[in-house]
Design goal:
Layout: E1 13-20, E2 24-25, H1 35-48, E3 59-63, H2 74-81, E4 90-93, H3 99-112, E5 118-126, E6 132-133, H4 136-147, H5 151-159, E7 169-170, H6 171-175, E8 177-178, E9 183-184, H7 185-196, H8 200-219, E10 229-230, E11 236-237, H9 249-252, E12 275-285, H10 286-292, E13 298-307, H11 316-327, E14 337-340, H12 345-356, H13 358-363, H14 385-388, H15 392-410, E15 414-421, E16 425-432
Parallel strand pairs: 3-4, 3-5, 14-15
Antiparallel strand pairs: 1-12, 1-13, 2-12, 5-12, 6-7, 8-9, 10-11, 13-16, 15-16
Length: about 425
Amino acid sequence: MVEQKKQTKGKSVFIVDGSRTPYIRARGVPGPFHAADLAVLAGRGLLARQNFEAAELDEVILGSTMPSPDEANIGRVVALRLGCGDHVPAWTVQRNCASGMQSVDSAMRNILAGRSDLVLAGGVDAMSHGPLLFSTAMATWLGKFYAARSMPAKLQSISKFRPTLLKPVIALLRGLTDPVVGLNMGQTAEEIAYHFGIDRLAMDSFAVQSHLRLAAAQAENKLQEIEVIYDSDGNYYDHDDGVRPDSSVEKLAKLKPVFDREFGMVTAGNSSQITDGAAWLILASEKAVKKHYLPVLGRIVDSEWAALKPAEMGLGPVHAMTPLMKRQKLKVEDIDNWEINEAFAAQVLGCIAAWKDSKYCRDELHLRSAFGEIDQQKLNVNGGAIALGHPVGSSGARIVLHLCHVLEQANVKRGIASICIGGGQGGAMLIERD
């Protein structure tokens, strides 16, 4: 494993503000907002309350895994719509589930390098708008049909048409399947559950906890980062609507496995939801903080990216957090709060189990013994993606932003946000309050 160097000595990168849309659960049809719309709506109020103009940003970086054909470089599209002007560079990053965290990391590194002082970074995906594609066979037929010059040639081409050619390819399902090992993300969660002996009851109990914690956070008005948004029909959205306050282990036990119907334990109820949403953070150097009299939510101390077997991609957080914590000389008990994205209950529980497993820590993390046990009372204290959803490009930015608010609300110092990444990677970011 290649360790990253510590940040440039004497330099700090601050998170000064942020916002996100409510996460809107997909309901089988395209949702009310395209991805660019969500990013604009999340950013408009955020920028309006700043002590600087949008055109004073040095750059805009947006993570996204599935922008529409009209949003190819969605970062630039959104930056222009937000009023950043013609002269603010904007770009898009893609690291699967960690695209939003990658944008924050990229912004941090540009600030540390002295290339930027003030950056808008975030992530977005409108998963309900995932396209339906033609198969290769249908595309080949269409190509030959349009290439036919004469009427007899066109008729001959038409004679070879079969209705089965019209069967759509669901881009979302293809995108959530690893082409190297041939497993979709749910199947990788089943692999982890088998590896660590995580049973169905544990998964469903964790899922219920996620819903109840989010419901409590909503009731206690703890999700201050949410911007109320309106669609073109005047409907408003002010909360994460995937939450089920009445969730129970008994109800979840009735759901059938989705990814391994005969022997599996991963269900729709103990998995993250398909959702639309966007999240932004404003990152600033010390110079920019002083120049614009900016408040400080938190400081990014360090970050780490790691890779592992694609079939166990859900364990990516422990592979990223371990070297980060070793580099910073931190123990599990030194962390006040954790945000680990809940792609699947089995995946988060697997991360907890991996750090307690001496053999796994020795063989896979190159440690001498077990690393320690995460206190679940400090983990995802306001619920996670099982309850509020996982718009893939957005989640990495959301957990960093929410961690800042959790640390502030609890008046504690240090937290880690981490996320697993399809394809076998993990990302982690260490945040502190001064």
